[in-house]
Structure formats: C-alpha cells, structure tokens
C-alpha cells in the first residue's frame, strides 16, 4: 500500500509542479531574476504549499503513527553546521545556472529532452560524489 | 526592477497541490517528501527503494497526465551542455551535502518552522539570485 501512496503522492506533486510552471526552467530563472525583470509567481508556489501542509502537519503529527507505517520519520537535526550552508549555497548556484531543482528535473524527464537527461544524470553523479565526500569525512 | 510574466493563480494552485501531496505522503507513509532525498536514496539505499522509485515515477507522470487534459506544457531551458552538466553536478552535490532541496527545506522544513531549513532556503535563494544576476537570464 505504501507503494501506491508513493506513486499517487509523486503524481500529485508532479501535477502541482506542472500547473505552477516550475517545470519550465525559463520561468524559474525569471523568478530568480529579481534585479532585472522579476516574475514573482514561484513565491506563490511556496506559499501555497506551506499554508496547505503546515497546519495539517501540526494537526496530524500528534497522532501516534502514520496510517501505513510504524512511525513518522521527521528530521531531528537542529544544529546549523557548515555543510548545511555550503551545500545549500552550491545547490543555489546550480539552480540559478539551469533553472531546475530536483523535483522539476525529474518531472521534466517526461519531455524527452537530451538536456534534461544529461542534467538528471549529472545530478545523480553529484549525489554519489557528495556521498563519497560525506562518508570519507565522517 | 519590473514585474513580468506574473501568474499568481496557477502558481498558487500548483503550490496547494504540492502541499497536499506532501501531506498525503506524510500521513500515510510517515515520510517527508523531499525530492533530493528520495532521489538519492532511490540510488544509494535499499530501504524503501520501490517506494522511492514509484514517487519519482509519479513525478514524471505529472506533466504527461496534465498535457493529456490541457494540450501541452511549456518548458524552455538552456541548450548549453556545459551549463547543464555543471548545473546538474552542483544541484546533486549541493542538495546531498546540504541535506535537502526546494521541497525538503523550502516546503517540508519551513512548514515545520525548522531553523535549519529556513537558513538553507535563504542560502540557496541568495546564491540562485546572485547566479542569475551574474550570468544573466
């Protein structure tokens, strides 16, 4: 059953990315282009998602367990380490160069464009490289 | 600064769908729908691998199903392979080291008022904006 939910969640997420325009890198770059011609739309994507999820999260996290799993998996880290800031900053540079972040990049595979396939392949190579660095340092 | 191509209604509607999807994944499967984590775990961890791949498959189906009902999806991106390779590597390395992306930090984390996620989101917004400012749109 969790598999069906995963598929359905991914599908709704993908529809949301499509309707909002996040799967269009040109629009994402327009959002980041605040100093010239700015398209503020994507702020509404974040706001829409947060005001939907946040109250539901606080109402339902008090339940002892999720419907189909043993327990809720909620990130417990609290400290602001340098990996967080370095990692997020590097991600932002890549995001600004192409206009794709992980979710929309995966959704954009549906367009069968060589550029998207290369981007996603490099993103996975990036996960792998970073994992090597992280395990070496720990 | 001038405002162009502003589509608040479709952006907001899409955002609500994304938030709802994150909720469904949370209340049923007990997990946070951070796409970079789901994608890297699908690659590198055997735990929940079928679930992770099915979530990613759902993401791919999204635009396909949307275009069946609407007639098409606009998506324009750079054709510079140098940018595509560099961007993909930076997004992969950065989200893995920083433990999350636009969805994991920007949506799931901020919804929980996580200070880590707020700082991460500010960081990638700032470097994203600076990158577009320097390299042009």
Overall form of chain A? globular
Q: In this structure, how is the largest beta sheet of chain A organized?
A: none
What value does the Rg of chain A take, in angstroms? 17 Å
How many beta-strand elements of chain A?
1
Biggest sheet overview of chain B: none
Write down the domain tally of chain B. 1
The total number of structural domains of chain A is: 1
Beta-strand fraction estimate of chain A:
under 5%
Order of H and E elements of chain A: HHEHHHH
Structural class of chain B: mainly alpha
Put simply, the count of helices of chain B is 6
Question: Per the principal axes of the C-alpha atoms, what is the gross shape of chain B?
Answer: globular
Helix content of chain B: over 70%
Fraction of residues in β-strands of chain B: under 5%
Q: Unreliable runs of chain B, pLDDT <50, ≥5 residues?
A: none
Please give the most extensive interface between any two protein chains, plus how many residues each contributes.
Answer: A-B, 117 and 111 residues
What is the compact description of this entry?
The complex is a heterodimer of chains A (138) and B (137). By secondary structure, chain A is mainly α. Chain A has 6 helices and 1 strand.
Topology:
The complex is a heterodimer of chains A (138) and B (137).
Chain A: H1 2-20, H2 25-32, E1 37-38, H3 41-60, H4 82-98, H5 102-107, H6 114-137
Helix pairs in contact in A: 2-4
Chain B: E1 2-3, H1 8-29, H2 35-44, H3 49-70, H4 81-97, H5 102-111, H6 115-135
Helix pairs in contact in B: 2-3, 5-6
